[in-house]
Design goal:
20 helices, globular
Length: 492
C-alpha cells in the first residue's frame, strides 16, 4: 500500500512540474506584455483570454471527465472498448469545438464591436477561436497520457507547449511588432507542437470506432458538471467582486494578496488531482477493496499534508507579505481562513470519489450551487461589518460545506471506512495553530520563534493524538528504502 502512495506522490510531483513551468512563464511574460501594450490593449487581451477559456469549457462540456470515467468501465483486456471510448470522447469534443469556432469566426466583427466598441479586434477574436480546437486536441492527448499513467510524457507535452507558445509570442511581439494577435498565434503554435508530441505517444490508443451509445452515457455523466463548473467559478471569484460592490473596495488589494497564499496551496491540490484520478480509477478497476483501503489512508495523509502546509503559510504570512507586498499590511489576517479553504477543497476532491464512481454527478451540480449560494449570502451579510475577513470566512464555510456534502453523499452511494476522527482532529489542530499567525509581535525574532514552536507543537500533537502512528512512519520509510533500491538497480 505504501509503495502505491509513493507512486502517487512521485506522479504528483511530476505533474506539478508542468504547472510550475506555466507559473514561471506567467511571471516572465507579465512585465514584458504590460510594457509593450497600453493598459487598454492589455485589458482587451485579458478579456479575450477569458473568452478563450470559456470557449474551451463550452467545447468540452465535461466530456473530458466523462471519457476518463468511461475508459475505466472496461478492463485492460477490453482494449477495443477503451479505444472506442477515447475516440468517441475526442470526436464529440472536436465537434463542439468546431461549431463554436465557426460561430465566432462568422460573427467576429460583431463580437469585437459589442465587446470593445470597435471592430479592430476582430482578428484577435478570430485567432482566439482558431486556438480553441488546437488546444482541445493537445489537452485531450495529455488526458490520454494520464489515463495510461504516463506522467513524464504528460509533463513534457505541457512544458514544451508552454515554452513553444511563449517563445513564439514574445519573439513576434518584440522583434516583429506582431501585436495582440501574435500572442494567440503563439498559443496555436505551442499547442500544435504539444499535440504533435501527444499524437506520437498515444495515437494507437485513439484508433477505435465512434459509439453513439457511449456518447449518450458520457453526456449523461458530463452535463451536470457544467453548472457545477460555473458555480465553482463563482465560489472562487465572486468574493472579490462583492468586496468592491459592498463598500470594501479598499481591502480588495489586501484580499488579493492573501489569496496568493491560497493559490500556492491550490497549485499542490491541482497537481495531486491530476495524478489521483487515473491512479485511483485504475486501482479500483483492478481491486475495489484495495482501492478503498488506499483511499482511507490517503484521506488522512492528504489532510495532514494540506492542513500542515496551510499552517506554515498562515503562521508566517505576515513576514512573507511584508517582503513581497509591504503596502498590504493587513493581508496576512485572511491567509489562515483562505488556505484552510483550499485544504478543504482538496479534501472534497478525494471524498467525491463515491459520487463519481457511481455516475451520480447530478449531486456535484446540486452541492456546488448550494455552496455558491451559501458563499454569496455570507459575503453579503459579513462584508459590511468585517470586510475582507467576512469574505474569507464565507469562502471557508462554503468549501467546508462542499466537503461535508460530498462526504455524506459518497458514503451513501459507495461506503468507505474513512478514519474521520483523524481528519477532523487535524483540521481542529490546524485551526488553533493558524490563530497564532494573526497575533502581532513587536520583535521579529520573538515572532519567528513563537511561530516555529507553534508549527512543531502542531506536528507533535498529530503524533500524540494518534493521527499519525508507527505504522504510517514505518510504511513510508520502507517504501522509500525500496524505491531507493530500485533506483540503484536501474542506474546500475
Amino acid at each position: 500500500m505504501f509503495e502505491r502512495f509513493l507512486t502517487l506522490g512521485r506522479q504528483t510531483v511530476i505533474y506539478g512540474l508542468g504547472g510550475a513551468a506555466l507559473q514561471l512563464v506567467g511571471l516572465i511574460t507579465l512585465p514584458i506584455f504590460t510594457r509593450v501594450f497600453s493598459p487598454t490593449q492589455y485589458g482587451n487581451l485579458e478579456t479575450t483570454l477569458a473568452a478563450y477559456a470559456a470557449l474551451l469549457v463550452l467545447s468540452d462540456l465535461g466530456l473530458g471527465s466523462a471519457t476518463q470515467r468511461s475508459y475505466y468501465d472496461y478492463d485492460a483486456d477490453q482494449e477495443p472498448l477503451r479505444r472506442s471510448a477515447l475516440s468517441t470522447g475526442l470526436l464529440g469534443s472536436l465537434a463542439l469545438a468546431a461549431a463554436w469556432t465557426a460561430l465566432v469566426l462568422i460573427f467576429a466583427r460583431a463580437v469585437s464591436d459589442w465587446q470593445f466598441g470597435t471592430a479592430r479586434y476582430a482578428d484577435l477574436i478570430r485567432m482566439a477561436a482558431i486556438a480553441v480546437p488546437v488546444t482541445l486536441i493537445a489537452n485531450f492527448f495529455r488526458e490520454v497520457m494520464r489515463l495510461k499513467l504516463l506522467p513524464w510524457p504528460y509533463t513534457a507535452s505541457a512544458i514544451i507547449g508552454t515554452l513553444g507558445s511563449t517563445a513564439f509570442s514574445v519573439t513576434a511581439v518584440l522583434a516583429f511588432h506582431g501585436g495582440l494577435v501574435s500572442i494567440f498565434l503563439g498559443v496555436v503554435v505551442g499547442n500544435a507542437i504539444a499535440a504533435l508530441l501527444g499524437f506520437v505517444v498515444v495515437h494507437r490508443d485513439l484508433i477505435g470506432r465512434f459509439s453513439p451509445s457511449e456518447l449518450r452515457r458520457m453526456a449523461a455523466y458530463a452535463l451536470p458538471l457544467v453548472p457545477a463548473g460555473v458555480a465553482m467559478w463563482g465560489v472562487n471569484l465572486l468574493d472579490r467582486v462583492l468586496l468592491t460592490k459592498l463598500g470594501a473596495s479598499a481591502e480588495t488589494g489586501q484580499y488579493a494578496v492573501a489569496n496568493r497564499f491560497g493559490s500556492l496551496l491550490m497549485f499542490a491540490v491541482t497537481a495531486f488531482a491530476l495524478a489521483f484520478g487515473p491512479f485511483q480509477l485504475s486501482l479500483w478497476r483492478d481491486d475495489a477493496e484495495l482501492e478503498k483501503q488506499v483511499r482511507t489512508r490517503m484521506l488522512t495523509y492528504l489532510t495532514v499534508g494540506l492542513v500542515g502546509a496551510a499552517v506554515l503559510l498562515s503562521l508566517f504570512a505576515r513576514e512573507i507579505a511584508s517582503v513581497i507586498s509591504p503596502k498590504e499590511t493587513h493581508a496576512y489576517e485572511a491567509v489562515g481562513m483562505l488556505t484552510m479553504s483550499v485544504a478543504l477543497f482538496g479534501i472534497s476532491s478525494l471524498v467525491l470519489f463515491g459520487i463519481g464512481i457511481t455516475r451520480r454527478t447530478g449531486y456535484v451540480a446540486i452541492y456546488t450551487v448550494v455552496a455558491l449560494a451559501l458563499n454569496v449570502g455570507l459575503n453579503v451579510l459579513l462584508i459590511p461589518p468585517w470586510g475582507m475577513l467576512g469574505s474569507a470566512f464565507a469562502t471557508l464555510v462554503a468549501y467546508g460545506a462542499l466537503a461535508a456534502f460530498y462526504y455524506h453523499r459518497s458514503q451513501i452511494l459507495y461506503p468507505t471506512p474513512y478514519e474521520l476522527r483523524k481528519t477532523l482532529t487535524t483540521i481542529v489542530l490546524g485551526g488553533l495553530a493558524m490563530a497564532v499567525g494573526v497575533v502581532r509581535f513587536d520583535s521579529l525574532a520573538v515572532s519567528l520563534a513563537v511561530k516555529a514552536v507553534t508549527a512543531l507543537a502542531f506536528a507533535a500533537a498529530l503524533w500524540l493524538l494518534g493521527v499519525l502512528d508507527h505504522d504510517d512512519i514505518g510504511g513510508v520509510r520502507t517504501a522509500l528504502v525500496r524505491a531507493r533500491a530500485r533506483g540503484k538497480a536501474v542506474s546500475a
